[in-house]
Every structure is written in structure tokens, then in C-alpha cells.
Amino acid sequence: MVYFVQHEEIQNRRELLLQSEKLSVSSARNAFEKELQPIVSDLNFLSQTLSGKTFAQMEYYFSLLAGDKKYYDQIRFLSTNGNEIVRVNYRNSQVTVVPPSELQSKKDRYYFQNTLKLGRGEVYISPLDLNVEYGEIERPLRPMVRFGQVVFDENGNKRGIIVLNFLALDMLKHFRKHANDVAGELRMVNAKGYWLSHELWEKEWGFMFDREDRIQQEYPEEWETILNEEAGQFETENGLFTYTTVHPIAVSESINHTPYFWKIFAHVPTDFVAGIKYDQVIGMVIVVGPIYVLLIIVCALLALSRVNRLAVLKDLHESETNSRAIIDLSRDGIVNVDQEGNIATWNPAAEKIFGYFKNEACGQPIKDILVGSSVLPEIETWHALLAKKSQTGLLDAPVEHALLTRTGKTLPVEMTFAALGTSQRPFLTIFIRDLSNQKNAEARDRLAKVVFDETHEGICICDEQRKIMMINKSFTTITGYRLRKVKGKDPIFMAVPRYDSTFFKDMWQATHERGHWSGELWNVDGQGNEYPTRCDVSVMRNKEGKIQHYIWVFNDISEQKKEQESLHIKTHFDALTGLPNRILFLDRLGRAVAESKRTDEVFALLFIDLNFFTVLKGIHGHAVSDQMLIEVAQRLKDVVRESDSVARLGNDQYTILWRNLSGENDLGYIKNKVKTALEVPWKYDGMELNINGSIGHAIYPQDGDTAEELMRKAEQSMFLDKPQKVN
Question: Where are the beta strands (DSSP E) in 215-332?
Fold first, then answer.
């Protein structure tokens, strides 16, 4: 009877092992599929929402999604030729919009080519691999699954594709936690047998590094069974194998590409399985021995204390469970070091901080894992006290140190040491808090303050009601206003009065729709002086999209305006006479033609060339001839009306554009008036010189309806007016 009881117990233990392995493998698969399902929903939302949006609006939506989800390493919009148009990165808890100069072409990447083939609403999901930037595998390693969908425009044409880079590192970490629930090892491979998760991390990602690290090398026969069946459990001379299949494409019914899969399997070594049978033999030897009768008596005595003992064990188990849960859920790394200086416990937060998994860290000397120039002497000091059992509880106040992670990155941490455990089994417990986010935030705050205070642009920050809250030094330098004078005011109080309410209504509407507005704005400073500014207004929104702040940045562009005006004068006006030059005159003539076509206005073009000017210049020199050209310019300006235009085309040639001509008689009057003005003797430096010129004309539209035709006709007419033998 005892044999059958013992045999039944062994069989129950074996059955429990089999069911436990199946449950653990199934649980790992369900966890994978649960993490992938929301991503397809996000992708569908983006492709539908951004169909008609601008690239700036895409940046805004991508940034919101990346900051909210925190597990998209990259969110991108690629054109149909594979170029990145918009890319938002999420790194170190920060959302960054990548500038155009850093965008890349992805036309040769498999996920772009496969996604672009899809129809409306279909989704592409890539295999699990490592992120590649600029043709190189990114370090530290960043496992990725890419989700892609085509974006169509309103006409049904493919506008580009959206790609979500799902950062699978946390997903793999969650998977490795399931390894604690299996009796042996829990591993994962892709369809070709390459290790995606292995307790020896150096075996992983062989297909990315051209290494033949595959399951076929260790279990070739077992792999054939695992590969060809969806799920199952079997036992060979190599141990117990329990396996299942993860189909990433199963998370969406709209996926349209060649299926692929991952295989999850738990392996229990042969010696562990055999140990259960060995327990049966040992149990039988004990049970059938001469102490059988004694055991009956002892069992009777033990039965009396069983209830109390079970109650104590239950309380102890609950206490240990609660303590372990607190340690596992802690955001701080918690590490116990035994009396030999080896790591005894290593919680999930320590895994995340340093990059070493629990099974890699436990049992290793603490000095080999927590590496830093300043921390080792302190650990050795506290460890010596632990060995002497001379102190318990907290050993000192928290201290900051710089430690090295698995990848060689220097990490700022705050460490607190305590002597815990029992007198028989004392531990040096180290509480480790990652300060990198805090330090980065402090550095960003310092940098932002320096930029805010020292930038040459004037900056004011307003609340959601557009009331000024903060200004920088350059704001005061440019405007003459200190904070106490402007706090609580709308920045547009500085604008010159000539702007109407419509201008600012349009400005704020554009700011709200696009997230920013840029343009020129004339302001009045504290002394009442007007000055031009180049102004940029932006909005900051919270996660819900509600406006929290307005950022107003501006430059005084007075000097730029002066330079532009100077350049305009040099480009469009004659340096000697100050009259419009050929470029500006032809522009005005072209405008006159365009306006007259709409209004049926008639105008005249006069072409004037001075007679005998070359002879005069040869006799009297450049100084006299230049003064004559200036005198002619002034006389012509005195003849015309304000609506007319006089220009110097070059050398001794002038033109007059006479608007609103009433007829031929009017033209004759004008030409006579010009000729009379020119023929008045010119007195200069004791000399009296005669000026006369030949005048040609063309009338719009009877002599031509283009600027070029009118100029040609006027010049031809001028030559007909020339006296003979003019040099």
C-alpha cells in the first residue's frame, strides 16, 4: 500500500511539472500577443487621422503619441520613394523631432518595400530584429518590431507610409521574467532557429552578426518536431521540451504579407526529470524500512501540531510574498550581498539600471558588477562591518556615485547601505537609485536657463490667456520694458496702432491651427520709437492637447531693414542722378501695361537722348558732363506730374512714363514742354552751355501692348527726331 501511495505521489509531481511547463509557455505567448495588439490600433488611428494633415501636424501627432506610449523608439512618415519626411525619436524619456538634415533614405529597407505594396487599411509587421542606423547595428542593441501602413490622399493615391518602431526590449525583459516560473530554461527562437532570447546573451541575434548560433546546434532532432508543430510537449534523452508558437500577424486581421513566427520553448534537463523517479526509489527504501512503525507513531504526534505549524508557515509565506513583491515592484535597485562578497539577490530595477539579468548577476562578486572608481572602497568598508556583525540597520546617509553599466555607460546613482538579514545569514543590502533622469533634467534646466537668459532674441512666455509671465534680458534690451511693466499684459500691447483687429485675429488662428506663426511686426519701445521685428509665436500643449503656454520670440531687424533699403536703392536707382534706373523703370512700365489692360487707360512713353553730349564731355571733361546729367534729371522731374515717372536708362538717355494721356494734342504739349525745359541755357562754373535733346514717343496701346514693343517704338521715334550729323 505504501508503495502505491508513494508511486501516486511521484506521478502527481510529474504531472504537476508537465502542466506547469505548459502553463508557463502559454502565459509567455499570451504576454507577447497582448503587448503587440494595441500597436495596430495606434497605426490605424494615425493613418486615418493624418491623411490630409501637413508635415508640421504630423510632427505634433507623432510627438504626442511617442510621449504618451513611451515604447515607440521611432515614429516616421516616409514618402513613396523611401525618404524620411518626418521622424520623431523617443530616447531616454525624451521626445525629439529629428531635423531635416538628419533624415535618411529607407528605400532599400525590407519593411519599406513590403509596406508600400499594401492596400488601404492593410498592416505590415516586420520580424523581430535589431535597429540599424546609417547601415550599422545601433549600440547598445535595440530590438525592434516595425509596424507599417500606407497613407492615402483624398484622391486615393498613395501619399507615403507610416512606420512605428516598437521597442521590443521591455517585451523581451517581460518574457525573461517568465523563466522564473519554469523548472529549466525558457528560450525563444525565430523561424530559422536563431536565438532571440537565451540565458547566455552572447548567443542571441546570431543572424544579425553572421554567427551560426542556432537551436539546431544543440537539439537538431528536437528542433524538427518543434518547427513542424504548432504546440506540444515531448521528452527525449536531452530532457523535457514544452513549446508553442507566436504568430505576430495574428494580432490584426488586416495584415497582408508572408507569415512568420517565433517559437517559445521550455527545456527541463534530463537530470531534473530523472530526479523525480529517483525520489520514488529513495522514498520506498525509507518507507519499507524498520522505522515504518515508528513513523506511524511520529505521524500521530505530528498531526497534533500540524494546524499550528501550517498557520505559522502560511503567515511566513505571506510575509515573504509581500516582501518579494515590494522588492520586485521597487523603482530602486535592491541588491543583497552575502558574507563572501557575492550577489545574493538582484531585483528587476537593478536589471533595468545596469543591464545584467538576475541569472547573470547572482553569484557574481559585487566588485565585478558594481564598477566605479569611488564605490568599491565604500562597499569594502561596509562589508567588513557586516563580517564582524558590529552594526545593523542603515549604515549611513545616501551617497552619490558614478557606476558603469553593462554597455560601459557611466551612470549617476544614489546608494544607501544597510546591514540586514539574520545573525546566521547577514546581508549587506544596497539600495540604488538611478539619477540619470534627474541629472539630465537638471542639466536641461540649466541649459534652458542659459539659453533663455543669454540669447540675443527677445523672449516672453505667456500663460494660456496670453498674459506675460516671464521675459529674458534681451526682451528688456530690445523693448526697454522690465518685467514689472509688462507682467500680465498681452504682448500685442507693444504693436504699433496701425494694425487692426483682423490682423491679430488671423495671427492667433494660424498659431492655434499650425502650432506656430512667423512674420514681421512693427512695435513701439518704451521711449515711443517704432522698430521692426521678426516675430515667432508658438504654443505648448499638454497631453490632452490643451494650450498651456505661448512662447513669443522676436528680433529687432532695424539694421536689416536699413541694409535692405540700401540694397534696394543700389539695385533700382541711378547712383548719379537718383532717378530710377533701367531695371526699376522697366518694372514700372510692365505694371502700367498690365493695369491699362484692365482699365483701358492710354499712356505715353517718351525716350530722350541728349544731342552732342559726347562732344561736350570731350571738351569739358567728366565733372562738367556729370553735373549736366544731374541738371537734366532735375529739369525732367520738374516737368512731370506726381503720377508720372522719370528714369535714366544709362549714359545720356532718359525716359518718361506719362500716365492718363488724353490724345495726340496732349502728347504734343508734353513733348514741347520737355523740349522747352531742356533748351534753357545752363550756367555752370562761369560757363553758359546749351542743352537739347531728341525726343521719341510711343503710345499704348496703338504703338504696342507690351513693354518691349513700346520701348522699341519710342527709341525708333527718337532716332527720327535726331538732327543730322549728331556725334
Answer: 232-236, 239-246, 262-268
- What is the full DSSP assignment across 448-481? HHHHHHH-SSEEEEE-TTS-EEEE-HHHHHHH--
pTM of this structure: 0.39
**DSSP structure string for 111-161:** HHHHHHT--TT-BEEPPSEE-EETTEE-SS--EEEEEEEEEE-TTS-EEEE
Task: Give the bridge partners for 541, in sequence order.
Answer: 547
| CA contacts within 13 A on the Cβ side of 64 | 15
Q: Which of 609, 607, 594, 600 is nearest to 702 (CA)?
A: 600
User: What are the E-state strand segments in 277-362?
Assistant: 333-337, 343-346
Which residues make Cβ contacts (< 8 Å) with residue 636, sequence separation at least 6? 608, 646, 654, 656, 674, 677
Task: Encode pLDDT of 210-262 as tens digits.
Answer: 888 899 888 998 899 998 888 898 988 888 899 999 887 644 444 444 467 88
Answer yes or no: are the C-beta atoms of 151 and 171 closer than 8 Å: no
Helix then strand count (H, E) for the chain reads: 21, 31
Extract the C-alpha cell encoding 611: 544731342
DSSP, res 99:
P
Measured at the alpha carbon of residue 640, what is the angle toward residues 639 and 645, in degrees to the nearest 5? 140
What amino acid is encoded at 216 in this protein?
A: Q
Reported as type and span, the H/E element at residue 547 is strand 547-556
Reduce the DSSP state of residue 229 to 3 states and report it. Answer: coil
**Rounded distance between C-alpha atoms, residue 175 and residue 173, angstroms:** 5
